Structures are given as C-alpha cells and as structure tokens.
Hints:
The structure holds 2 protein chains of 2 kinds. Chain A is an alpha+beta fold.
Amino acid sequence: MTPSKGIFYGVVVLLVALLIVSSTAAVYYYGQNQQTGSQSQEYVGELSTALASYSTLSARYNASLSDYNITLSLLAGALADLNTSTPAYQNASLELSSLWASYQQLASFSGRRALAYGVHMLVDFGNGTRRWFNDTSIQPGWNGYIATLVLLGGKLQAVWYPQYGEHLVTAVDGASQTTSASWFFWELVNGAWALSATGADQLQIYNGTSIAWTLCGYDTNFVPTCTPQVSS
Amino acid sequence: MRATQTVAVVATFSALIVGSDMALAPFSNVKLLDTLVFVAAYVFGFRIGAFVGVVSESIWSFVSPVGIAGPIAPFLVVGEILFALAGWAASRAWGHQFKLASPYSLFIGASLAVCAFLWDLETNLATALLQYWPSPTFSEYVVTAFGPLTLPFTLAHEVSDLAFGIVLAPIFILFIPKVLRGPI
C-alpha cells in the first residue's frame, strides 16, 4: 500500500513548517547569543577599566600612605623643635597620637603592617602607681621625647630649651613635678635601669628599647633618690 | 688688619668652631665655641672676636644636629659677645705678661666660666620669656633659669669652659701669634 499524495504533501508541509520554526528559533537564539557575547565583551572591557582604575587607586593609596608616613615624621620633627607654649605645638602634640593610630589603621587596610618599632615604657608616679606601655608601636626615627608624647596621647608638659636641644619635662600623664620631686628619664641598659645622661630628646629609640619616667626626689648633686620599680 | 685678613680670620675661626661643635655634639653643652671666641678677641681684638662669635653662633643656631634654635637665636648670638668682651678685656689686662702654665691660665678659665654662667642665665631667661610670652611671671623666670632640671646642662657648660679656658685657651693664645708671624 502506497501512501496517498495528500499524506506525502502533509508530511512535507509539516517538515517545512518545522524547518521554518526551528530556523526562526535558531536565528533568534543566534541573535541573543551575539547580543550576550557583545555584552560580555563590554563587561570585560569595563572590568579591565575598573581593574586599571583599582590598580591606579591602590598605587595612589600606597603613595598617600607613604606621604602620610613622611608627613607624620616631619610633624614629629617639627614638634621636637617647637616652643611648647605655642598653639601649633599644643594642637599638634595632642593630635600626633591619633594621627599615628590612624596611619597604622590605614596601613592595615592595604594588607600590610606599618613599619614600626615596638617600645616599652614605664611611668612610675612615685606613689606606688605605675603605668606600663608594653610593645607599643612608634615610628622609626622618633626620639624618647616624641615617643613619650605619642604614647601618652600628648599628656606631657615641658619647657623647650633650644640652646640645650632638650625638653625639660615638668609633668607626665597629668602628674606635675613639685619643689622636691622631679621627673627623671631612664633607659634599660643590659637589664638594668640607667639614668639617661643625654635626656629624652637625645635618646634615639630602636625596636625593643625600654624607657621609664620616674617622679622622685633628688640629692644635692641632683642624683635621683629612686629607680624605676618594675613590680610592686 | 686688612679687610681680607679680617674675613680670613673670622672664616677660619668660624669653620673651626662649627666643625668642633659638630664633633662634640654627642657631649651635651660641651663646645669649643666660647673658648675660640675668647681667643679670637684676645689675639685679634674685640671687633674680630665679636665677628667670630656672631658668625659662628648664627650658623650653629641653624645647622645644629639638636635642631634649629628659632626665636632664641638672637639671644644666643648676643650672648657670645660676652666672651668677645671678656677676651678683649683679658688681653688688655694680661696681654704682655701672659705665660703658659701660670696663674693667668686659671684666670682665663675662671673668666670663661663666669661668662658661661652669664650666658646660661641670659639664654635661660630668654627661654622663659619665649615660653611664657606674653606675660611671664617672676617665678616662671626663676624656675626656668635656675630649676634643678637645667643644672646638668649649665654645669656641663661652665665646667667645660673652665677646663678649656685653663688648658686650651692659653695654648691658642701663645701659639696663634707665633704661627701668624708677620704684619697683621
């Protein structure tokens, strides 16, 4: 039995119709694919631009951090030579501590630690009260005076004697000297506290340096009658 | 003394002073500056001594490793004229009879120590003036000038000037004119 002509043409028409539908779908999806490919290229371009911008931004951030570091160093250097009664000194001495903390935080955002030295400082108020600052970060290059100023958040009073290149400290952390007791500056040398012969300004601080301030009396040769007491 | 010679002497002394100040920088407040200003005035007269003091102290006020002196610099410079005056006065008093290893060496050392005391007093009072400007009190002047914290610095200055005055100044005073034989 042979299929009738009607069935044959019907099958052909159906096949042609299927061909048209599938071609239309193929053309449609081809167009969609082209459009998606084009968008992908666009996104790749945008990503490349964003990556380049990020690299530039990151480089600028690091450069700004470096400038911040240099500015802090310059500010500390300027503070070391400023008359302590000037408003510039008073403002900067209070801000230096928070600026240093802010710098360290910003440096950590860039995925690296700020280059810093760890310093240990003891403040002995002479009445049994002691305050330790253990392994506290300071900027390399700071002297004993600036390090103390930063660790105490600016709570340090002194008179600047430019002819001696020294600050003569009159109050530490809110405790002032008296007629019979003065603040003395010490350095830990070979495991023993030694009265600093040069003063805080002339003492260069290195990684691991231990310093101390003590409020105590002195004899007729201006030799202090106390030494820093590490433990009670 | 011709102008060129004056410039040469002042420049030589000033260079020697600044160089020795740098070399002695680790020893707080110990310097040859005062001794050499005194010697310059003793040997070449007050004018040259004063020039040496003004030039060298002005330079030192700005190139010192302990920092820039700033507003106190004029007080430091004026203070050096004291040493020039003392050197000139000493040469008038003992110039012709000066001998090495004699009581005159002690006199020179003592003169320098007294001048160092006056210089310290003047500059410490200036420090109080600048620190507590515009209205420093009498007690602020006293504490800043004579407080126990300043004692190690003033003692180092006065004792070193006494020692340099006794030992070095007489050698320079006798040696320099012999080296510079000829009309000056």
